[in-house]
Amino acid sequence: MAVLEDTQDREPPVHVAIIMDGNGRWAMARGQPRSLGHKQGAEAVRRSVRAAGELGIGYLTLFGFSSENWRRSAGEIDDLMGLLRFYLRREIAELHGNNVRFRMIGDRSRLAPDIVALIENAERLTAGNGGLVLTIALSYGGRQEIAQAARALAAKAAAGEIDPADIDEGMVADALETSGIPDPDLMVRTSGEKRISNFLLWQTAYSELVFLDVLWPDFGREHLEEAIREFHRRERRFGTAVG
Predict the structure, then answer these.
(1) Is 71 annotated as a binding residue?
(2) Is the pLDDT of residue 4 over 60?
(3) Confidence class of residue 22 from pLDDT cuts 50, 70 and 90?
(4) Who's near 48: CB < 8 A, 6+ residues apart?
(5) What does pTM read for this prediction?
(6) Domain contains 239
(7) Is residue 199 part of a domain?
(8) Taking residues 107-122, what's their average pLDDT?
(9) Which residues are catalytic?
(10) pLDDT for residue 3
(11) Are 186 and 207 in contact (CB under 8 A)?
(12) Where does Mg(2+) bind (predicted)?
């Protein structure tokens, strides 16, 4: 397992989640259309997936497109969906060859049928891989996910399959789309913004949050390493008292 040079005695976080922010600002600063920022952002995804595997991270979850992003202009959404198609067609074979398992969380009903087919094909192809688990959140919202889990549990209770009094945190976690994936140890947001924007609200209850000033298209291995170094400087107590 690869480790950072200055943290030889420290294991990397098992699960890193990243809010990829700043594509539009990156393009605007260069007098270019937002579509170029998104294209360069896709290259940052490639670098980050490669770096995560090299650093020994087990799970990488990337916030690609939120449920609120559907409010953007039709032109920008079309550009993003076109880029998503391109990524799914171009990258999946390489991910599979590198033993990466691909997963998607989010509302698939709002995605075009051909995109859903590409996602399902990627998930089937890589389902048996035992390396990095790459999860892409698309048309995703944390509140939406929790509400969906609540509906599923309510339906089971109404059908007599479970007793409402037995519903606990474990049952809720199992009803989420991330069931089977450990909660993130580290959440990173790029662009200097300091909020989590409805991303993995349940799962990040005890995640360490690191906010970086770099815009997502410029994000690389050195920034991931910087976030991990900051993670290692934190004392994680999970609500327990200071010793």
Answers:
(1) no
(2) no
(3) very high
(4) 18, 60, 62, 219, 220, 221, 224
(5) 0.92
(6) no
(7) yes
(8) 96
(9) 21, 69
(10) 46
(11) yes
(12) 21, 208
- Region 57-74: what's the mean pLDDT? 93
Strand order in the sheet with 59-66: 101-105, 133-140, 59-66, 15-19, 186-189, 208-211
Q: If we measure between CA atoms, which residue out of 194, 219, 217, 224 comes closest to residue 23? A: 217
Q: Is the pLDDT of residue 5 over 60?
A: no
Report the number of distinct structural domains present in the chain: 1
* SS3 of residue 180 by DSSP: coil
User: How would you classify residue 32: left for phi > 0, otherwise alpha for psi between -120 and 50, otherwise beta?
Assistant: beta
For the purposes of burial, counting CB atoms within 10 Å of the CB of 82, is it exposed (0-12), middle (13-18) or buried (19 or more)? middle
109 in a known ligand binding site: no
Residue 54 neighbours by CB under 8 Å, 6+ apart: 2, 221
Is 216 annotated in a binding site? The answer is no
Over residues 197-226, the mean pLDDT reads 97
> Is residue 47 included in any domain, yes or no?
yes
111: helix, strand or coil: coil
Tell me which residue range forms the domain holding 119.
5-233
Q: What is the C-alpha separation between 234 and 230, in angstroms, rounded?
A: 7
User: How far is C-alpha 183 from the geometric centre of its chain's CA atoms?
Assistant: 11
Average of per-residue pLDDT across 105-118: 96
Q: CA nearest 66: which of 13, 143, 121?
A: 143
> Would you say 25 is a known binding-site residue?
yes
Q: What CATH number has the domain bearing residue 217?
A: 3.40.1180.10
Is 195 annotated to bind a ligand? Reply is: yes
Q: Is residue 238 part of a domain?
A: no
